[in-house]
Fold this protein.
Amino acid sequence: IIRMSEDKDKFLSDIANQFMIAKDVPASEHIKLLKHLEKLENETLTHVLNYFITLENKPEVLTFLIKMVSKCYNDLTLDIIGDMLLYKKYNNDEEDTKLKCEIINLLGKAKNQNFVVPVLYVLNNKNENYKVRLSCAEALGRIGSSYAVTPLINVVTDDEEKSVYLRESAAKAL
């Protein structure tokens, strides 16, 4: 097990370079390298993953990092990915859809009331991919906030909503 050294910033910078984070390397190479992070002790792993998430741009790598961090996240992790959900520029391709779904799933798993509004924002965006909106409905059900009731009812009763799966998921979340 590897622990973080005294100089946290240098440690994080060194390990980011070692794992070629934010470098022009194919995503598959990054992911192969990132699997070695399991040697880190949980608290160190959380700090490293949080740092990597703030630097990396490739959706495939970010999705892998979010999956890894879902096993050992902290409040800072949730803040980082909550901001990423709302403020990151997305291409809205399949990889970005997977990334957003993974972010939303982690926010739902955390059951943190602070993320109801960002998840509702994405749910209410009718231009968003239905898979992402479906993840939002499921996450809101897991979070269990009363603030989500009316927006979820609106999804269920919206005759113009094209996705039956989304409407069913919103109903289940209620």
Remarks:
- The mean pLDDT is 93.
- The two ends are 43 Å apart (CA to CA).
